[in-house]
Amino acid sequence: MGDALQQSSQSLPRFIKESLKQILEEYDSRQIFYFLCLNLAFTFVELFYGVWTNSLGLISDGFHMLFDCSALVMGLFAALMTRWKATRIFSYGYGRVEILSGFINGLFLMVIAFFVFMESVARLVDPPDIDTNMLTPRHSHGVSRGGCHSHDHSHSHHGHSHSDHGHSHGHSHGTSGGGMNTNMRGVFLHVLADTLGSVGVIVSTIFIQQFGWLIADPLCSLFIATLIFLSVIPLLKDACQVLLLRIPPEQEKDLHAALEKIQKIEGVISYRDPHFWCHSASVVAGTIHVQVVSDVMEQRIVQQVTAILKDAGVNNLTVQVEKEAYFQHMSGLSTGFQDVLAMTQQLESMKYYKDGTYIM
Amino acid sequence: MLSDSFHMLSDVMALVVALVAVRFAQRTRATKKNTFGWVRAEVMGALVNAVFLTALCFTILLEAIERFTEPHEIQQPLVVIGVGVAGLIINLLGLCLFNHHGVGGHGHSHGHGHSHSGRQHPRSGPKPEQPPGDGEAALHREETSTLVENCSSSNGVSQEKLGDMKDDMADLQVNGNAGHYPLDVEEVEEDSSAQLNMRGVFLHVFGDALGSVIVVVNALLFYGLWNPCPKDGPCFNPCVNNHCMENATLSQTLGRANKSEQESITEAGPCWLLYLDPILCLMMVCILLYTTYPLLRESALILLQTVPKQIDVHSLNSKLRTLEGVEAVHELHIWQLAGSRIIGTAHIKCPDPSTYMMVAKRIKEIFHDEGIHATTIQPEFASVGSESGRGKCEFPCRTQCALKQCCGTGEDSTAKKTEKSSSLSISCSEVVIEFPKTRRTKSESIPSVKLEANTDQNEQFESSL
To answer: What value of ipTM does the predicted structure carry?
Structure first.
């Protein structure tokens, strides 16, 4: 990041202005930004009011919202960073920041769910008195705010209307416009958790006021905690898979078929160390070492391998072509060459015999 | 005390996360789905722990702020002191264990984390230490062990293979300049991913220990200095509830009126004691955040696949470019898989395959000197295929394959690719199929000296094309 700042060689205010401009250009980041502003305004109002009337509930809720705002800030910053150009230190670009921020948002949500769960358990065991009058207006504010935003969000993403459940299956199949990327999912789930929290408080308040079931409060919290937890799990799982450098699941079959095709290329003896991973929403990278017979043009092999793998969806590929002469030069420096050397010698002798034009 | 038990619970969760990460990270074998194995699990474990710590700091901060607005007295200071000291002892024990493990782990060659619960003794590593003079063999050992093992071998079997390989090493002439690695540097580097994970756990236990210290200090001071309200007799507490100030003035006026009754009205003890707890909590939060931030940053940078901080990519790039025979270097990516396993890829443009043969060894050496052992170098040649003005990559495909071939055009290729790809691939393979027929006639002249064959091939192709 320091590298990017150095590259731009701008002072801090200009950097902020430029970032703001970039934020407002893109639809995703614009949404997060507006919601962040709304949230911040509400937070300060609440804090101010709480300090003025010296109400503990309002102050603590204000700080809770501040914590939420920090998660939103992280999401916004990640959406901004994705568009920065690649530098020497971040050689693939900053696209992966989205996934990391989605992951961290998911972790924060898990922590929140955990604490709500613990609190509700504590309240089940030892129920305190609740003053229901203060709660309703504040939480209806919260619900309207959250409902507004999630409504917008769900309509913006091409009919993925998931306003009830957080299970947005917005996998981007190579392009980022098709569904929600991980960062937006994280922010969306955060907002959803907020909304659910407020909804739960309202519902339980109604229950208490109408029926006098004091147990409604912890039960609602328990229910909401489990909902949040369950909705976060898909997000965490997806982000984990990308961060652990797993083959992107949508392209797994294609990749295996492509590897078999590579084996059948004329001149290819074997391949070794195929590694493919999803770098960010739009970049799938890979490396592979290919062992070839000595009398073949490396360029041709590289071409063919790249073409096959590009069809399978890998758009950032490095192919190392190894011939037997290569091994003898590389003897100190490449790994496992002994086995491959033996294999190539064996296979080459077999190949000559199969062709029938040579003497073995 | 309820909140303290929650903190201990989160401590348990941190240990569980670290344990799961360590278990996963032992599967270094590549699977069909995870081509690198699960090696990164430790870095993820460290990140998860760091994030949990940060979240914990936030909650402690919230509680401290609550305490500021509504200070509580501690009801039974002696009990709190007892529980606090017990918690502190347990945490100090954990600290000693993890501190020893995190810093002094020498025998680990695969970076396994050993203390699976806080109570086991750290064991020495599974592989015996090799004498430091055997730098060459150590290099090979590190190579085979740093890369992901593709064959199905457990640790025991791979040790046998290492033994075989070392014997073969002695016979062959080794061209590479392999003797640069002191053994302890290797081992410290190899440990670093496990170290990250253990650091996460250590910081968590450290935070808990700080919490216990604060609880004990607070309770001690409270016990010593606080004048509690006696159960009988009128008493008012000036520290709690601002709207009781009217009562205070009322009682003062009463007191002035009836001086004889002043002694019976007692005041609760010094108010600043009540604010000590939140202040100490704030200090603890600051210390924790300050120590957690480096861990968070390091694991995040590894996961983002940045260039590791010990490698100067600028100088590496210039070293590569100044090699003779190298015309250009692009798509240079260097990133850290986990711990000491650094992976590098590059596309090197050379004039022809024979120069590439000579240059490839030196390129690999340069990478090895920096500690990057898993490299993939893609050669590109300018002389074969005469379209040298075409962008950065030189793939001599005569038809419109060029759109598909080059690196880095991933974004716009996805849309166009789907329509053109099927037809294009056929045309490319058609072009290619012609070659083998011409190649076979030249087959008798396949000599044992490879360089000549290559130059023959080049000439032959240029003429036929």
So the answer is: 0.76
